[in-house]
């Protein structure tokens, strides 16, 4: 029995195109289950599968002499892509964008954690490439012409086009949730389209300072009227952004040893903010630098540096330069990584020191040890102080970066046996090492005679303990140290220490803050006003806050004084937590208003950023 195409029913189902597409469907279905926990056969068939199948059938039609080779290479690339997405999702808890997938191959940091992310079953994604497709080729290489694929291309093209049009009708607030609902390829199309317009959710309505503070629950007070305004004016400024430093390490001991003894000592001359949350996007460390130097939200779905090519950004650096500061930035990484070769000139630094200048010595992880970095800074400072009356030095540490594996001679903690060779134990060792180098640098500032004339701001860029590398054993160790289960609060809070000798004497502030608030707080202490609007505010003045976070929480999530809300994600439904206890609650009072206000703050930040980067 034959159908109207002249192919028997048996041959139809055993046609090589059908077999190849069936294998592709199984692989895509497995991808959906692992990444999105989506087991709906029809959702995968009509939403995710058509675009991948369309690409394959186009390849079959295009390659006439090397069809089987093209099919094999396509599936090999697709298997590699799916593995990258799976590993990325396990580590960062979010689906990567097209830019992240490209950038991941440039990142030595990811290479060091691959062994911690994967399992033997993951490589079943390559089973079709190694076994199934060669078998189909062997038995079907002399079968019917692949012209049959044209009919499949038309069918999949129509379905894929409809699904893509549908996807463009929905707002892309959270890329993972969007990818689950509308397809991974569709999410990339929509994201690329919105990025080409400059920003995803940019409001076009200008808000006043008063309106911004009202959204956060505060009554606006002009900066010059704040009690902290100018109380630390005319001082040198040192910002130390510490890689992967989380708040719970401060004043924390293990086996009778302080994890951060030097930072703990520094608190005596400091104002310590112990409730400040990371707010980075896909740019990670570079987004923390963006937040620090602009007080604007990062782009979120792509590293913010992708939006600033060829532009001069109103920044902390430029504002300090207008107030007679020399400005320098130090990071022992490759300047092209996260496009800092664009970021640093855009921010306006006088001196830029990266792996091109900082000696490649005592390598730990994927760069020189932090002691090499600080030694280099100590060499440059005296030269700069001869040229500039006041210096701003931006310092980005590197050693305490995942996978936190320290050479034995740099392990300064005597850890209990059950912490040895664990991810948590390695993390504590790396943080302890960097803390030691910061302590030595502070002593050098004292020897130079400028410690008492300086503001030293130290903060963490983002969490280090997250994702698949944190095993059940690691969680048990963290519970032992913390005295409670490791929560999102423990993960996302970064320490913020404003050291101002002879002004602060160990004050601790526990009201809510975000990394977006660091720049306005610093400028207020210096008595300097920024030329353009900032979305953050002075932490010494305002007690209430409303924080959004892109990328590491689903879009639409927020953190307020009393509530920690996570919007629906690819795998989890929406959840409301009491922020003090991090226990789930059903209290929805004011929930939608807070969601709307958070989105308004981020949309307005996008509008400012778009305005600045297009000038």
List keywords for this structure.
615 residues; alpha/beta; Alkaline Phosphatase, subunit A; 2 domains; nine-stranded mixed β-sheet; 22 helices
Instruction: State the oligomer.
Output: single chain
Number of strands: 18
**Category from helices, strands and their pairing:** alpha/beta
Report the sheet with the most strands, covering strand number, pairing sense and barrel closure: 9 strands, mixed
Mean pLDDT: 88
Tell me the strand percentage band.
5-15%
CATH topology group of the largest domain: Alkaline Phosphatase, subunit A
Distance between the amino and carboxyl termini: 69 Å
Low-confidence stretches: 105-109, 198-203
CATH class of the largest domain: Alpha Beta
* Helix count, DSSP H or I runs of 4 or more residues: 22
CATH H-level homologous superfamily name of the largest domain: Alkaline Phosphatase, subunit A
From the 3D coordinates, which CATH architecture of the largest domain would you assign? Answer: 3-Layer(aba) Sandwich
Helix content: 40-55%
Number of domains: 2
Shape: globular
Taking all Cα atoms into account, the compactness measure Rg is 27 Å
Structure notes:
With 615 residues, the chain is α/β, with parallel strands linked by helices. The chain has two domains: 188 residues, no CATH class; 405 residues, Alkaline Phosphatase, subunit A. Helix content is 45%, strand content 12%. Strand 15 and strand 16 form a beta hairpin. The N and C termini lie far apart (69 Å).
């Amino acid at each position: 029995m034959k159908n109207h195409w002249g192919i028997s029913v048996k041959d139809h189902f055993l046609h090589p195109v059908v077999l190849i597409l069936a294998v592709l469907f199984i692989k895509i279905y497995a991808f959906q289950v692992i990444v999105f926990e989506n087991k709906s056969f029809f959702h995968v068939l009509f939403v995710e599968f058509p675009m991948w199948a369309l690409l394959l059938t186009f390849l079959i039609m295009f390659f006439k002499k090397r069809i089987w080779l093209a099919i094999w290479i396509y599936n090999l690339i697709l298997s590699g892509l799916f593995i990258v997405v799976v590993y990325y999702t396990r580590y960062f808890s979010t689906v990567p964008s097209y830019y992240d997938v490209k950038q991941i191959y440039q990142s030595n940091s990811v290479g060091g954690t691959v062994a911690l992310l994967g399992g033997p079953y993951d490589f079943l994604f390559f089973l079709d490439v190694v076994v199934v497709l060669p078998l189909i080729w062997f038995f079907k290489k002399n079968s019917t012409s692949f012209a049959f694929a044209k009919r499949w291309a038309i069918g999949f093209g129509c379905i894929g086009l409809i699904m893509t049009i549908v996807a463009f009708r929905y707002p892309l607030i959270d890329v993972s949730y969007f990818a689950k609902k509308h397809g991974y390829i569709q999410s990339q199309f929509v994201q690329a389209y919105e990025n080409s317009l400059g920003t995803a959710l940019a409001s076009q309505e200008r808000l006043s300072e008063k309106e911004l503070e009202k959204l956060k629950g505060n009554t606006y007070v002009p900066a010059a009227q704040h009690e902290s305004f100018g109380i630390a004016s005319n001082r040198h400024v040192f910002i130390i952004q510490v890689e992967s430093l989380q708040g719970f390490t401060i004043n924390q001991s293990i086996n009778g040893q302080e994890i951060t003894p030097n930072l703990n000592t520094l608190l005596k001359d400091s104002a310590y903010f112990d409730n400040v949350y990371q707010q980075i996007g896909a740019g990670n460390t570079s987004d923390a630098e963006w937040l620090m130097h602009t007080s604007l939200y990062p782009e979120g779905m792509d590293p913010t540096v992708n939006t600033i090519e060829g532009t001069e950004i109103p920044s902390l650096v430029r504002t300090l330069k207008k107030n007679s500061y020399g400005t320098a930035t130090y990071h022992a990484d490759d300047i092209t990584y996260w496009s800092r070769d664009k970021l640093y000139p855009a921010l306006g630094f006088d001196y830029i020191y990266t792996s091109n200048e900082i000696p490649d010595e005592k390598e730990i992880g994927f760069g020189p040890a932090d002691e090499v970095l600080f030694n280099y800074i100590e060499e440059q400072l005296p030269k700069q102080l001869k040229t500039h009356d006041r210096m701003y030095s931006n310092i980005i540490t590197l050693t305490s970066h995942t996978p936190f594996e320290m050479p034995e001679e740099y392990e300064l903690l005597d850890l209990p046996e059950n912490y040895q060779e664990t991810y948590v134990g390695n993390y504590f060792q790396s943080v302890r090492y960097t803390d030691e180098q910061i302590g030595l640098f502070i002593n050098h500032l004292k020897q130079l005679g400028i410690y008492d004339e300086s503001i030293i701001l130290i903060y963490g860029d983002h969490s280090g303990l997250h994702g698949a590398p944190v095993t059940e054993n690691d969680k048990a160790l963290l519970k032992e140290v913390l005295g409670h289960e490791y929560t999102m609060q423990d993960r996302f809070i970064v320490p913020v220490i404003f050291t101002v000798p002879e002004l602060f004497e160990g004050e601790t502030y526990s009201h809510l803050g975000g990394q977006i608030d660091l720049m306005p707080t610093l400028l207020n202490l210096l008595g300097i006003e920024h030329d353009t609007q900032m979305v953050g505010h002075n932490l010494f003045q305002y007690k209430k806050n409303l924080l959004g976070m892109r990328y590491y929480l689903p879009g639409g999530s927020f953190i307020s004084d009393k509530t920690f809300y996570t919007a629906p994600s690819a795998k989890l439904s929406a959840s409301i937590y009491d922020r003090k206890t991090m226990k789930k609650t059903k209290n929805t009072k004011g929930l939608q208003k807070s969601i709307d206000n958070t989105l308004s703050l981020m949309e307005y930040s996008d509008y400012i950023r778009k305005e600045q980067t297009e000038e």
